Amino acid sequence: MKSLSLVVSLALLLALGLVPPAEAYDPADLAKLKKTNNCPKCDLAGADLSGANLRGVDLRGAKLDSARLNGADLSESFLGEASFTAADLGGANLSGSDMIKADLRQAGLRGAKLDRAVLDQALWIDGTRCQSPSIGCCQGKDGKCKPMP
User: What is the distance between the alpha carbons of residues 5 and 122, in angstroms, rounded to a whole number?
Assistant: First the structure.
């Protein structure tokens, strides 16, 4: 009986969005990224890319939810419309990257470098939409940069 109540409880938490579903990347997409440094619209959710040199990468529209990108070099990259929900971008270099309409909800950005990154219309870590222009920071409707964690 206890196991049934545990299953029901977990199912309820998952349905309410309080427990994120397990993310699994596509191994073929990861291989493509490593070989070509380009992988638009790829599924890399949950992939461990910590410390990777991805400078200038094309990941437009890619799914990187819950990916580990801490310390990665993503500078001068094309990341527009990519989803980084709950991804770890701590200490990542995103300088000069195109992040227009990227989804950064719940992403870990502690220590990330965003100078010259274009964040127009991106979804910020708190779920608010960055205003245009948002260069190097996410500007709120009041024209002020939203705080970094």
Answer: 40
Q: What does the pLDDT read at residue 24? A: 87
Among residues 35, 121, 52, 116, which one has the least CA distance to residue 89?
Answer: 52
Q: Residue 141: how many CB atoms within 10 A of its CB?
A: 9
Q: In this structure, is residue 92 part of a structural domain?
A: yes
The C-alpha atoms of residue 45 and residue 64 are separated, in whole angstroms, by 4
User: What pLDDT, in 10s, does the model give residues 7-59?
Assistant: 344 344 334 444 444 568 999 999 999 999 999 999 999 999 999 999 999 99
| Claim: this prediction has a pTM higher than 0.85 | no
Any domain includes 74: yes
Per the CB < 8 A criterion, the answer to whether 125 and 105 are in contact is: yes
Distance CA 141, CA 4 (A): 47
Q: What angle do CA 48, 93, 72 make, to 5 degrees?
A: 20
